[in-house]
Design a protein that fits this description.
Helix 1 packs parallel to helix 3 (56-64). The protein is α+β, with helices and mostly antiparallel strands. The protein is built from three helices and four strands, in the order H-E-E-E-H-H-E. It has helices at 3-17, 40-50, 56-64; strands spanning 22-25, 28-30, 33-34, 68-69. Strand 1 (22-25) and strand 2 form a beta hairpin.
């Protein structure tokens, strides 16, 4: 699986899950949620503010999946309660 395929899979899981656990494989589940992707202008603004270019793979992640909680993890404390 290449990066584009992996990002497409994460995006599909985000679209399907919307923050609610989904089955990924027999006995394996996770929740996924994208809170918005970043277009070229937004990414350029972030780079200008930081003063350096973001790595190409990270730019692709932010454009495809974006700000997100993956596999049930979130900055506000893990699995939804």
């Amino acid at each position: 699986m290449n990066l584009a395929e992996a990002l497409a899979q994460l995006r599909a899981w985000c679209d399907r899950s919307r923050g609610v656990p989904i089955e990924l494989a027999l006995g394996v589940s996770g929740s996924f949620q994208s809170r918005g992707t970043y277009g070229e202008a937004a990414l350029a603004e972030v780079e200008a503010e930081l003063g350096f270019a973001l790595p190409p793979a990270y730019r692709e992640f932010m454009a495809t999946v974006g700000e997100s909680s993956l596999f049930g993890w979130s900055p506000s404390g893990g699995w939804a309660r």
